Every structure is written in structure tokens, then in C-alpha cells.
Request: fold
Amino acid sequence: MTGRRGFLLGFLLVALLVAGGLSSFASSSPDGLDTVTLHGCTVTETAGGEQLDGTCIARNAGEHATAGSPLADYAVFGGEGTVGLAGVVGVLVTLVLAGGLFRVLRRRSPAGSAPSRDD
Amino acid sequence: MVTAMHMSDGLVNAPTSLVFAAVAVVGLVLCLVRARADLDERTAPMAGLVTAFVFAVQMINFPILPGASGHLLGGALVAILVGPWVGAVCISIVLLVQALLFADGGLTALGTNITNMALIGVFTGYGVALLLRRIARRSRGGLAATAFVAAFVNTVVASLGFVLQYAIGGSGGAALGTVFVLMVGLHALIGVGEGVITAATVGAVASVRPDLVYLLRGTATPLVRRSAPSPSAPSPSAPSAPSSAPSTGGAA
Reply:
């Protein structure tokens, strides 16, 4: 059996490779939900963003409150070809937040008990 | 290019957003309380990594039809690996990071997105996995099949969450029947991809560390449970007690 530490590092490496590398090959077509909300509209790319014509749910969508974020739309400062970098940052931020929360929540082994058999 | 993938602001009206924000908060508080029992020195780091992994894989939109794609939701994936209570928190953290940092998923839509993907998706996936647990525990293939089915069902049922919210307070733009048919049809296709990714991930973890798969708890290699021995419980070395008794008696 792989040691726990090695396993966790391997898991992290896979996540980083997926977000940092594979993400460049992701489909840019609208996902299931967006396909439904765009149903009935034609989308035209304009200098000011996407223009929707027709009747569809997405016409009610508001501008995103964090659209000015440096990582908005999975790009670093809107730069071309930065999706991988944005993904790596996202993985690390998520790991720190989730890892920190779960660490705080976890049940601690009682003081003085034998150390757990980790590996 | 990675496209936005969750509900934006404004697709449902404010009262509906508020109601589902309340549902999400109540559900999440319950999950946080119950998650404690499933988190220890071994599972807490695993849960953190599973969360980061879901964030990564959600970025990968795969084509399902010409002009349409899908991506992992992750409900069954987290439920099988870290349990439903921790799992719902994992998905919520992903949605929070995406909404706050990546402008993906509206802030007022956080309640609806968390309800659909973190609560409905995770607990549906877990329910299906529980129903199939005997098959999952029988063999590696059984586990993969269970993961596939649970993931497929969680995708379709989570998509019904949006249909429900649109029915209650949709801002209009499409007929409810059309929304229902399109959502379920598209998410049945996405569910196949979700099933493949979930089966592959759960299978890979189980082949290396079956002890870190929540659904397999109690069947895999016997583990020393930290919480089991309490100070008052009879010591397993009780038969040797008489030999030590005289020495304690002598000291008194």
C-alpha cells in the first residue's frame, strides 16, 4: 500500500496537472445549464462582450459582482493563455481553504494516546 | 478557454434566491456539525485534497453535443470518497471559490447553486451509492459500477434542482416544459461523463488506498480505530492482570 503522504502528494499532483494543463483543452462550448439558459437566443461576440438576441433565460442574467476579480473567467488579469495558471492558483486556494477548515473541524486524538499508524 | 458553468445572478427572482440561500445555510450548518464525526487525522487532509481535485476537474468541460459541453458536478465523487456531510462542504467550498475569485456563479445564486450541487447532488449520489453498497464492496468492478450509477443519477437529479427553482421563481425567457426537457436531456448526457470520471477516480483511489474510501469503511483492511479504546474499558491484556496484581498490591 502506498504511504499516506505519498498518496496525498500524488493526488495533489494530479489536481495540479488537470487544472494547470488539461484545462487548456477544455471545451469552450456552453455547459448544460448555459445551453438551456441560452436556448432561443443567438450569441454574437462583440467588442463589449457577448450580445444576446432573441428570447432566452440568460437575458435576465446580471453582470457578475466579482467580474473585476483578477482571476475572473479563469484567466489571470484577462490574459490569453493564462487558464492553466489560474487553475493552479484555484487548486491551491481551494486546498488551503478546505484543508484549513477540515483541519479545524477534525476530531483530535486524545492527548497522550499512541500516534496513529499513518503509513 | 474555461467557460462559466454555474447559475448567474438574475435567473430566478430575489425571493426565490433568498429561500434557497436559507436552505443552503441550514443544510450547510447541519453538514458542518455532522462532518466532525467523519474527520480525523487521516481523513481531514484527504477531504482537503478531494475539494481541490473537484475544483480542478470542474474546469474540464467535455463536449456532449455539437455546441454543448458538460463538466463534473462531483456529488457522488465526494460522497463516496469522504462521505456526504464532509462532501457537501467540499462542493460548497468549490462553489464559493469559483463565485468569489473566478466570477463563476452569481453571488445571489450561491444559495441555489449550493442547494443543487452540494446538497441535492451529494446526498442523491450518496443515497444511490448506499443502495448499491453491497455490490460496491464485493469487487473493484462493483465499486466502479456503483460510482458510475451514483454519479449519473446525481447529475440528472441536481439538474432538476434548477428546474424546481425556475418553476418557483424563474425570471422567464423559456417555457417550463422546455427547460425541464432540455435540462434532463442534456444532463443525462453529462451524467455519462460524470459517471466515467467518478468511476475512474474512485477506482484509482480504491486501488491504492481503499482505507481512504468512505463507502468501503468497515470492509477493507482492518484499521486501528483511535476512538475505540477508552481508559475505563477492560484492557485486552486482561489475562496477564493477575501477574501484575501482586506488585501493585505490594506498593500500596
